[in-house]
Design goal:
The chain has 58 residues and is mainly α. It is built from three helices and no strands.
Length: 58
């Protein structure tokens, strides 16, 4: 089965790694303005999770 859908697994791997890189980079941008790491990661997740939900349903 993996041999049949190898391209799909490759796309999912690249997409997941890009998402993690974007989340980490996105957490570095508002850090000087928000200060606390708790508020920074809350803001990043507050944007990332709904965006994934909306794009996954289309």
């Amino acid at each position: 089965m993996i041999n049949k859908f190898w391209f799909l697994f490759l796309v999912l791997l690249v997409e997941g790694s890009n998402l993690m890189a974007d989340a980490i980079t996105g957490a570095k941008l508002p850090a000087p303005f928000l200060g606390s790491p708790f508020y920074v990661w809350t803001a990043v997740l507050y944007i990332t999770v709904p965006a994934l939900t909306l794009t996954g349903n289309s």
